[in-house]
Amino acid sequence: MLKELADYIVFRLLAQQHGSRLGEALDFFIYDTVKIFLLLAFIIFVVAVIRSSFPPERTKRILSHRREYVGNCLAAALGIITPFCSCSAVPLFIGFVESGVPLGVTFSFLVSSPMVNEVALIMLWGLFGWRIALIYIGTGLLVAIAAGIVIGRLKMERYVQDYVWEMQVGNGEVTAMTFRQKLDYANEYTVGLLKKIWPYVVIGVGVGAFIHGYVPQDFLARWAGRDNPFAVPVAVALGVPLYSNAAGVIPIVHALMEKGMAIGTVLAFMMAVTALSLPEAVILSNVLKKPLLATFFGIVAAAITSVQRDFIERRG
Questions:
Q1: Is 242 left (phi over 0), alpha (psi -120 to 50) or beta?
Q2: How far is CA 277 from CA 92, 131, 137, 212, in A?
Q3: By C-alpha distance, which of 20, 12, 52 is closest to 187?
Q4: How far lies 252's CA from each of 37, 173, 216, in Å?
Q5: What is the mean pLDDT of the chain?
Q6: Distance between CA 299 and CA 1 in Å, rounded?
């Protein structure tokens, strides 16, 4: 329905031509802006209601495991059953931080949720077979766990914005709320957070719309082909500015493979698009200070590149 609405506005009301660069960019911008805000509002509201019903200490106990790395593995596994796009995972990330979950563990979830989920598994299985699907899921979990462990070891809590720490709720008093109070709390929390992040979302989607409408379709295939020894890092670098979820990027992945691109390069591109999008960066910039944001993107990009290059070398 949202796609039909965007098409009506762009191609009927604004009289743009189907297939034109401006028309496709505007269509992408209107559709994705509305979709992202609806997703964000819904997910933030639901998360707020859940948080008002369950003491934060319960989540903290589960994910803050005494044994090192166990929390990262649990958070990455949680991402499999929470198929959010990178932007939609941010509210849960904030909720984990507020609840006192270790920072490295929250990053394992932030990487895993958009990149490794049942949607990706089913679509990859259907298009490429179970081997490719399992390789993607396995390498995705490895990237999420490794990135979270490294960030946790760096002790960068001071680079989380101060207002996030001020919103921490370390006790279970919220469980005494009535249902009406929970809804009021969730509504207030959702409106407050959206007010903080809406300009970043609009800017990020605008850049994505420009890329969608004006970057040639064979651009990635030209610069990240089989003959380029730097194909994987190029694919990761080109995937970061784009924005899509697993369901949206897999058809692109299929087309790239049909053009002869190596499977490791294609999977690296898919991971970068789903886990390291530009809209996610601009939203997170209101939650994380620049050193931590740059560290997060750098570590995840390096992990994706390392894992997929190793995969290509082993197959070669």
A1: beta
A2: 17, 26, 19, 13
A3: 52
A4: 24, 48, 13
A5: 77
A6: 38
